[in-house]
Amino acid sequence: MVTVSSRVHAAFPEWDAFAHAVQARRPDAGTWCEGWTVRDVLIHNTGNAEEFARVLQAHIDQHPVPTRSFEEREAPYRAMTDVDLWSAFIERCERLVDTTEAASELPPDEEIEWTGRTVTPGFFVEHMREELVLHRWDMTGDDSASVHALSQPWMTTHTVRDVGKPLMARGIKALHLATGQQVGGRLRCPGTDDVLVTATAEATTIDLVAPEGQATIECDPAVRALFLWGRRPADPSRWHSQAGPEALRQLRALLSGY
């Protein structure tokens, strides 16, 4: 069995929990991610690690490359055996650590092209960490480790600032809004800023703002992170709302995730 280096553990504190969740289940076991098995989750995160490193290294080398689609980056891994896929996952994570260490020489506000937008060098490690947390939940559901990881403030901040608009792109298409129509809502957790999302036929916005007025949904931080990614906790009593069915339907459709 191929083992991972201490450098990966240091860069991705969530790696162990994700790896243990994968290895504790059959590759063909189902997950909370619609249509995906555990093997699909592992393929996805192997492709993520490779693409993060590929795009970041190309920027370091001053030969930028476009971000490949999920289908393109994941196709080679679907042809692998389970043993080879696991080895590939470890190797791609090691390579990503190498690349992010090399990127430490870049200015922290350097703009790097990623999926039609620009991000900064720190995005790549943080987003890999978020992928490990989220997709571990897809396998385990609401166990204590997932609730703890999803509740960390950086998870919500990263989602809002670096991923929010792409996450809503699918939802806005499904809502078929007319010109001049606007939908949105506030997701509130006690003691934190609200997450405010709005959408029109032309644009979407997502921001952290001071609590004001009535929230569309009130919940704990882990549930809010799940909602932002189009997921739902197993226990629906962990969130509350007085906004009414139509406002909830629109907000949940907008936050339908990938």
From TrEMBL:
This is Maleylpyruvate isomerase family mycothiol-dependent enzyme. Keywords: Isomerase. Residues 9-139 form the Mycothiol-dependent maleylpyruvate isomerase metal-binding domain. GO terms for molecular function: isomerase activity; metal ion binding. Coiled coil: none annotated. It comes from the Bacteria.
